[in-house]
Hints:
Elements: H1 2-8, E1 37-50, E2 53-69, E3 72-86, E4 91-97, E5 100-111, E6 114-124, E7 139-150, E8 153-163, E9 173-186, E10 189-198, E11 210-221, E12 224-233, E13 241-250
Antiparallel strand pairs: 1-2, 1-13, 2-3, 3-4, 3-5, 5-6, 6-7, 7-8, 8-9, 9-10, 10-11, 11-12, 12-13
Amino acid sequence: MFIRIVVFFTMLFWSGLAFGAHPLITDDAGTLDKGKFQLELNGKYDHTDKDGVTEKTTEIATALGYGVTNNMDIVLGIPYQYTRTEDSDTTNTEDGISDISVDLKWRFYERDGFSIALKPGITFPTGDDQKGLGAGRVTYGAFFINTKEIGAWAFHLNLGYKRNENKVDEEKDIWHASIASEVEMAKDLKGVLNIGTEKNTDKTSDTNPAFILGGLIYSISENFDVDFGIKGGLNKTEPDYSILAGITLRF
């Protein structure tokens, strides 16, 4: 019982390693059935104004998941990033493929609407670290994922760790914690809410980024979803706001 209680309060998101039901950042413990695929095409726009500098980042992420067994998935993530930085004198842009990720999610416990999964993952230095598009080295992490379903509601909790090996002088030991909820508002329509924080990768800052997110998921059919969300920063180290949208196809 003690282990179940501890695990219930542990689960993780990391942007490059975890994929929740978009637009959620917090992952859920669900997996695909054996032999099934899931394709996600997600877009995100981040906007930050700080000290006279405006940074606008657009990311297009493709995630392809495959059900190895009924309770184990493998997920390939390929992100593309475009960043525009402006001040009173100059404008700089960078764009390209970021670091590609591979995750394995194993749901090892499920009972009475409560499930637990373990999700190790790794990223490869496919992005140009000199342009701010990647870490420059292989990174890895391991996360617990927990989901509790109660009627029309579902709750997800994340806690975990990422070893952020890098060439860009960032912190290497990164923790993340987040919690999310989903509720069925009407037939085929869900509302979602998400809040979380993680260790700042900036060694010069003592403030850890924190966010809050709200959005909707609409199921056009059993195997086709569209979604939209807005994320706000709860402190100055998080982007001022983000707009998220995506589609999910299962086959």
